[in-house]
């Protein structure tokens, strides 16, 4: 009994250790030696940077830029501002202002570039985590580095970009137009998609990752959180960062370091100095310093590789890697060992074919039941709690409680099912079907998702367990438990990572992962005759977490509701509406949309949608306000050789933040200039803005230049019409509207055009 209790304790310790080893648990104070990173010193900068929203066009945007420049110059660095008009493939036209500095190295070699961005997300985010945390990590890291007064081998370029949130415009400007871009050999980019948790390392490269991973391991950061599965998934998702521009436009490799927990704070008014996890900021510093020291003196001319590595992190060993070329040999070897052990066990009569056949049932049932619960359970919760649909991130304030509830429920199901086939001394037979399932999964992975091929490491330890079980009817339970440590310490963090990073719709990944982990643990739990009792305890614990989640399912000051409201005036129809993206109206939106709102107008759904493709839901007729309309001046309109040359000058006549232009996707624009900048044609297209899938042309984010000049050439016979939406983010403080501030239990909904006054105007070329 004591040994079984010890085994259970060891399992709990292994799972706890797998999470505990991911990040630091104390922060460095103001008394930290000058040559070391100090989180408290970095926080001094963060408090200044995150006082107000500082998106492009906001009043505080220039203030934050000037603060960063001042702090870099205090370190003795010469700074420069790079600014120019840009249009990226996101369709955003803006003039970013990048901050640059350079530390000269001793050799004429490739440079190491430290990267983050200083603009916050429009229009309410304070940008403490995204990406104030990255900016202050670099400021403090460079200060510590320079205090040693050692000259690095490589130049170190510091680039704090602008307009990242709008369309990676600042990074695009640097990579494509700055002479320093050709000097860059490697980029370290610091980012955030939440306000806490461990920071994940993700590689950006057009080729293989092998030499990058070798360098990362040699730099030896204390708390590496990196795996090739996340790397493979990241490459499939449309989650671009500034580093993407370096890879795509400059073929420059780099590392992303981004934390993703407390995802509900991302891009919201909750992204504040107070809510940033201090240990997370310490984690960013623990990456920067060793990598800065290593790569500032490494050969950055030799980082390209044709080969990829499988890699993963595990306590004690930090980052473990091996080549992709090992994947198939390791799989084949595992299959041969498995077959040999099964035949050996049958011949030795420690494996029973009937018991093995029966043991397939609980394993398959566990995967099916837990998979269905994970998939449909979250959908059901969204029906019971419709307010969850207002969280566009897909991760609710009580999301961690749901991860616990579904995970414990999955373990309970496994315990209950496997107890149905329990017999004294049949544990060896019970262990065979899970190993077969893992072999099948590893086989699929080897051909479809090679980045996850480290799953075979726990499988090998499972095969060792099977060998022990075949050899001994009563093996040492402590030894069997220690053989579970690889699966528990490598795989357990994935139970949390998927729903945190991709939203609670991925709870199905958690329930399936728990089922797979438990299946290998049957080599220990198979000896317990009381699995049914444990299942009842775990079912009860799961229910407790559901209750806890219920009590945190409402919106409060600590868990404010994201909501939305805009005013849209159609100048051509002389009509106006209030509109919202919300599914559940509240006391703040109902005075404008009423208890019986209309379905959102079709043109609203067509023109405005969020990062998560969220259309307007409701609208209501509104009183017309005396808004100033855009001023249009046709400065040139001539036909030469069958081509019409047009130049339009547009001035908004009121304070606005952006102008969005739409035109029929079949129109042909033979050339197009915006504020003097020539827009290039897409490849294999005779038309600028060719190959469009929608009617959107571009969005102009207003900063220094309050006007827009459009000069273009079109076929003379083309009847051309533009639809212009000019938007300002000032609805709450615009004297024409008298819209009150939100209660403390509400915040502006992120990822959508919100709190905006929008004027629609059609521009027709007769």
Main sheet overview: 10 strands, mixed
- Between the first and last Cα atoms, what is the distance in angstroms? 90 Å
How are strands sequenced across the largest beta sheet? Answer: 2-3-22-19-24-26-13-14-16-15
Q: Strand share of the residues?
A: 15-25%
CATH topology of the largest domain: Aminopeptidase
Describe this structure in words.
By secondary structure, the chain is an alpha+beta fold. It folds into three domains: 22-314, Aminopeptidase; 325-551, no CATH class; 563-766, no CATH class. The chain is globular and about 95 Å long.
Notable traits:
single chain, 766 residues, alpha+beta, Aminopeptidase, 3 domains, ten-stranded mixed β-sheet, seven-stranded mixed β-sheet, 21 helices, 26 strands, globular
Brief account:
The chain has 766 residues and is an alpha+beta fold. Helices cover 41% and strands 20% of the residues.
Spell out the blueprint of helices and strands.
Elements: H1 2-20, H2 39-49, H3 59-74, E1 79-83, E2 86-87, E3 92-94, E4 97-103, E5 111-117, H4 128-147, E6 156-161, H5 164-167, H6 169-177, E7 184-192, E8 196-204, H7 210-219, H8 228-236, H9 242-250, E9 254-261, H10 278-295, E10 309-314, E11 318-323, H11 327-348, H12 353-384, H13 399-419, H14 427-448, H15 456-471, H16 477-482, H17 485-502, H18 507-525, H19 531-551, E12 561-563, E13 566-570, E14 575-580, H20 590-593, E15 598-599, H21 602-607, E16 618-622, E17 631-640, E18 643-651, E19 658-662, E20 671-674, E21 677-678, E22 696-701, E23 708-715, E24 721-728, E25 746-748, E26 756-764
Parallel strand pairs: 3-22, 5-6, 5-7, 7-9, 12-25, 13-26
Antiparallel strand pairs: 1-4, 2-3, 4-6, 8-9, 10-11, 13-14, 14-16, 15-16, 17-18, 18-23, 19-22, 19-24, 20-21, 20-23, 24-26
Helix pairs in contact: 1-17, 2-4, 4-10, 6-9, 7-10, 11-14, 11-15, 12-13, 12-14, 12-18, 13-17, 13-18, 13-19, 14-15, 14-18, 17-18
């Amino acid at each position: 009994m004591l040994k079984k209790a010890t085994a259970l304790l060891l399992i709990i310790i292994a799972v706890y250790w797998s999470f505990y080893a991911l990040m630091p648990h104390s922060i460095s104070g103001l008394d930290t030696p000058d040559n070391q990173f100090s989180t408290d010193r970095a926080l001094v900068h963060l408090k200044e940077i995150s006082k107000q929203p500082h998106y492009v066009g906001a009043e505080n945007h220039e203030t934050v830029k000037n603060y960063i420049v001042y702090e870099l110059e205090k370190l003795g660095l010469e700074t420069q501002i790079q600014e120019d008009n840009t249009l990226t493939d996101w369709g955003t036209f803006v003039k970013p202002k990048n901050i640059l500095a350079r530390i000269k190295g001793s050799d004429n070699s490739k440079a190491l570039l430290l990267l983050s961005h200083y603009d916050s997300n429009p229009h309410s985010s304070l940008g403490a985590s995204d990406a104030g945390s990255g900016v202050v990590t670099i400021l403090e890291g460079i200060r510590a580095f320079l205090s040693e007064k050692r000259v690095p081998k490589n130049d170190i370029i510091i680039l704090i970009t602008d307009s990242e949130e709008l369309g990676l415009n600042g990074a695009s400007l640097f990579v494509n137009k700055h002479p320093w871009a050709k000097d860059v050999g490697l980029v370290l980019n610091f980012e955030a998609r939440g306000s806490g948790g461990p920071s994940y390392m993700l590689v950006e490269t057009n080729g293989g990752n092998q030499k990058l991973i070798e360098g990362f391991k040699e730099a030896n950061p204390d708390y590496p959180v990196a795996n090739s599965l996340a790397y493979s998934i990241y490459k499939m998702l449309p989650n671009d960062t500034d580093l993407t521009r370096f890879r795509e436009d400059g073929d420059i490799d780099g590392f992303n370091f981004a934390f993703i927990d407390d995802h509900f704070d991302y891009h919201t008014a909750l992204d504040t100095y107070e809510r940033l996890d201090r240990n997370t900021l310490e984690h960013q510093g623990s990456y920067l310093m060793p990598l800065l020291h290593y790569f500032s003196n490494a050969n950055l001319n030799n980082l390209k590789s044709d080969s990829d590595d499988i890699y993963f992190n595990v306590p004690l060993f930090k980052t473990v890697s091996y080549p992709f070329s090992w994947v198939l040999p390791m799989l084949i070897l595992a299959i041969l060992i498995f077959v040999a052990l099964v035949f050996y066990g049958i011949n030795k009569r420690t494996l029973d074919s009937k018991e093995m056949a029966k043991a397939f049932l609980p394993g398959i049932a566990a995967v099916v039941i837990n998979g269905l619960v994970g998939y449909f359970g979250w959908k059901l919760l969204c029906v019971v709690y419709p307010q969850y649909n207002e969280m566009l991130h897909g991760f609710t304030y009580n999301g961690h409680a749901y991860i616990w509830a579904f995970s414990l429920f999955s373990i309970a199901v496994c315990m209950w099912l496997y107890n149905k086939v329990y017999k004294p001394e049949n544990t060896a037979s019970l262990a065979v079907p899970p190993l077969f399932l893992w072999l099948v999964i590893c086989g699929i992975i080897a051909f479809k998702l090679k980045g996850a091929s480290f799953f075979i490491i726990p499988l090998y330890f499972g095969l060792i367990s099977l060998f022990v079980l075949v050899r001994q009817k009563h093996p040492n339970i402590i030894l069997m438990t220690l053989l579970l440590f690889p699966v528990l310490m490598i795989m357990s963090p994935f139970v949390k990572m998927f729903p945190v990073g991709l939203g609670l719709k991925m709870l199905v990944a958690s329930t399936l992962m728990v089922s797979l982990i438990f299946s290998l643990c049957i080599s220990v739990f198979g000896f317990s005759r009381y699995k049914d009792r444990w299942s009842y305890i775990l079912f009860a614990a799961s229910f407790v977490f559901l209750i806890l989640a219920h009590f945190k399912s409402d919106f409060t000051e600590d868990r404010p509701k994201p909501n939305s409201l805009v005013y849209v005036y159609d100048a051509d129809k002389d009509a106006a509406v209030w509109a919202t993206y919300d599914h559940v109206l509240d006391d703040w939106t109902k005075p404008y949309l009423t208890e019986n709102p209309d379905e959102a107008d079709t043109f609203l759904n067509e023109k405005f949608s969020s990062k998560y493709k969220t259309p307007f839901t409701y609208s209501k007729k509104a009183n017309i306000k005396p808004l100033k309309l855009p001023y249009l001046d046709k400065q040139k309109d001539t036909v030469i050789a069958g081509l019409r040359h047009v130049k339009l000058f547009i001035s908004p006549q009121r304070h606005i933040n952006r102008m969005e232009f739409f035109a029929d996707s079949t129109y042909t624009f033979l050339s197009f200039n915006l504020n003097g900048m020539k827009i290039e044609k897409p490849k294999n297209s005779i038309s600028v803005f060719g190959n469009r899938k929608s009617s959107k042309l571009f969005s102009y984010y207003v900063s220094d230049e309050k006007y827009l000049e459009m000069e273009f050439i079109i076929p003379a016979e083309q009847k051309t019409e533009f639809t212009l939406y000019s938007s300002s983010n000032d609805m709450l403080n615009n004297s024409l509207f008298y819209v009150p501030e939100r209660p403390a239990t509400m915040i502006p909904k992120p990822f959508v055009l919100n709190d905006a006054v929008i004027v629609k105007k059609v521009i027709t070329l007769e």
